[in-house]
């Protein structure tokens, strides 16, 4: 079964013999990988995109920042979006493309066998990025999450176990007497703990403390996700 593809490229692609050769080589591969291809230098109307399986964007069409802000990138999350002829050295562009929902990037330096294999993967609905890019992207995200987790743990660890337990009770709406009864301590001891908790968390009252506690929980959930 043939899948409809639209290729967005420049009108004046012929100005560079090298780029023209790379462009024509890529387009010649698409039909053999199961794509029915339409090309254009203008963003197609919604009616065309409604029947399009994969949208290929020539990296020479515009600058990288403008490319990742094209309507088709931002407004059609369900659509397979692929960039080809991209410079392999621009790592930041690859990372931004991944975050923008781009499904694959092909490089002008890629050999024929690699392009065919990648186009087949894209046609099947899979992502296609170089192993090096994916490895660096995963490492960068893991490092960010590890740092965020460490920061949250360090913030929460300023409280003792008893203080954290009391903070949890306060977040649940418990008053000092209820907290005292729960832990079998005096109300004055609870007040001492609450004063220490306020000081350590830079909170001025229970409302701020509850917000602080909720933010810790939300950040942990986000990082673990």
- How many independent structural domains? 2
For the record, give the distance between the C-alpha atoms at the N and C termini, rounded to a whole number: 37 Å
The Cα radius of gyration reads 27 Å
CATH homologous superfamily descriptor of the largest domain = Response regulator
Overview of the structural elements:
- This protein is α/β, with parallel strands linked by helices and 225 residues long.
- The chain folds into two domains: 3-129, 3-Layer(aba) Sandwich (Rossmann fold), CATH 3.40.50.2300; 143-224, Winged helix-like DNA-binding domain superfamily/Winged helix DNA-binding domain (Arc Repressor Mutant, subunit A), CATH 1.10.10.10.
- Helix content is 56%, strand content 12%.
- The protein has eleven helices and five strands.
- A five-stranded parallel β-sheet has the order 2-1-3-4-5, with helices on one face.
- α7 runs antiparallel to α11 (206-224) and α8 packs across α10.
């Amino acid at each position: 079964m043939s899948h409809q593809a639209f290729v967005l490229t420049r009108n004046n692609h012929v100005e560079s013999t090298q780029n023209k050769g790379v462009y024509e080589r890529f387009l010649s591969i698409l039909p053999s990988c199961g794509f029915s291809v339409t090309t254009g230098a203008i963003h197609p109307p919604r009616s065309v995109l409604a029947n399009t399986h994969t949208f290929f964007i020539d990296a020479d069409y515009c600058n990288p920042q403008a490319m990742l802000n094209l309507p088709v990138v931002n407004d059609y999350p369900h659509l397979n979006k692929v960039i080809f002829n991209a410079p392999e050295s621009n790592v930041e562009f690859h990372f931004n493309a991944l975050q923008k929902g781009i499904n694959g990037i092909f490089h002008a330096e890629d050999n024929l066998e690699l392009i065919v294999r990648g186009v087949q993967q894209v046609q099947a609905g899979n992502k296609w990025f170089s192993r090096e890019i994916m490895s660096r992207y995963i490492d960068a995200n893991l490092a960010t999450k590890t740092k965020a987790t460490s920061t949250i743990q360090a913030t929460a660890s300023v409280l003792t176990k008893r203080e954290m337990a009391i903070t949890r009770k306060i977040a649940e709406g418990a008053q000092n007497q209820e907290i005292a009864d729960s832990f079998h301590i005096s109300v004055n001891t609870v007040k001492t703990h609450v004063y220490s908790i306020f000081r350590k968390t830079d909170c001025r009252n229970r409302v701020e403390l509850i917000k602080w506690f909720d933010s810790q929980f939300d950040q942990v959930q986000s990082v673990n996700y």
